[in-house]
Amino acid sequence: MDVHWFYCVLVFHKLVSVWSRELLLYSLNDGNKIPAVALGTSLGHLADGTRVLPVNHSLAQAVQWALEDGYRHIDTASLYKVEDEVGLGIRNYVRDSHVDRRDIYVTTKLWNDAHERNEVRPALRKSLEELGLEYVDLYLMHYPMAYKKDGNISRTDYVETWKGLENVKEANLTKSIGVSNFNLSQMQRLWERSRIKPAVLQIEVNPTITQNELVNWCNDHEVVVMAYSPFGAILGRKKDAPPPRADDPILMQVAEKYNKTVPQVLLRYLLERKLVAIPRSTNKDRIKQNIDLMDFSLTSEEVEELSSFNSNYRLRTPAKWYPHPHFPFEKKNLTSMEIKHIIANSKDD
């Protein structure tokens, strides 16, 4: 075999390997399809809510690595303040690989301070400008809560905001629309009052917060659920978090059975439930590992066993938003003075 032919074979096998990882797609209720694994691009925040920002285009590099490894879905938001980095990573990949932008699925989100119906389109256009794109594949209302630009509570109803999302879909600025961090009653109310039904709900899901009732409602209404924080506190160091941890015997036994890591098992758990998994990482090896999920499956018994860890534990329920009438989560027992102190000392989110 000559060197040229050998090289072509290697390239072919690499392309087959990469493209085979993105074959898992879910159908949306609007006729579009969504890739089942997305790279999350939030870099987190400090204790006071200040967003962590990328240095030396580290996130753009992570996005490019992810696309090279077979990801075809990137999840971001205006809140994260990284849409420019996401766009740079996508452009670099398209330039180097000659893949069409249409083959890359991009999700971004509307922030709480642009909930007036006439604010939605300018907000999305700003995101598109940051991303360097003509459209996104999915635009989500990040939370049901509306705030004014000065940080005070707005009484704008999320149903009114949704009309703005319907408008940008009809203007072809996004292919699909959906919501994030809505609870069951909010989803039911939006469904009943919407002209275009939400195609996606993005919420926190992992074995310690299984969200069965809400996920089942979405399944019944053909709403695809995207799962953020797929590892929960299982891989973290939060002292108040319930079990399990990454060294739990059950998790380790399942991982050993399939010759996988515990994080890969946690991601596969979401895919078995027909959810879109959104792992976050800027580490090249972990990015690659987090998409290597298609060569094994969990049994229904293993899915049930992982679900038995459920304790409805949320990684984060921002107390600064407790006073909002549309706050979607259960509230911790805090005094009004404690909430005021949190609000006064919180920044971005």
UniProtKB/TrEMBL annotation:
<feature type="site" description="Lowers pKa of active site Tyr">
    <location>
        <position position="109"/>
    </location>
</feature>
<dbReference type="InterPro" id="IPR020471">
    <property type="entry name" value="AKR"/>
</dbReference>
<keyword id="KW-0560">Oxidoreductase</keyword>
<feature type="active site" description="Proton donor">
    <location>
        <position position="80"/>
    </location>
</feature>
<dbReference type="InterPro" id="IPR036812">
    <property type="entry name" value="NAD(P)_OxRdtase_dom_sf"/>
</dbReference>
<protein>
    <recommendedName>
        <fullName>NADP-dependent oxidoreductase domain-containing protein</fullName>
    </recommendedName>
</protein>
<dbReference type="InterPro" id="IPR018170">
    <property type="entry name" value="Aldo/ket_reductase_CS"/>
</dbReference>
<feature type="binding site">
    <location>
        <position position="142"/>
    </location>
    <ligand>
        <name>substrate</name>
    </ligand>
</feature>
<dbReference type="Pfam" id="PF00248">
    <property type="entry name" value="Aldo_ket_red"/>
</dbReference>
<dbReference type="InterPro" id="IPR023210">
    <property type="entry name" value="NADP_OxRdtase_dom"/>
</dbReference>
<feature type="signal peptide">
    <location>
        <begin position="1"/>
        <end position="20"/>
    </location>
</feature>
<dbReference type="GO" id="GO:0016616">
    <property type="term" value="F:oxidoreductase activity, acting on the CH-OH group of donors, NAD or NADP as acceptor"/>
</dbReference>
<keyword id="KW-0732">Signal</keyword>
<feature type="domain" description="NADP-dependent oxidoreductase">
    <location>
        <begin position="58"/>
        <end position="309"/>
    </location>
</feature>
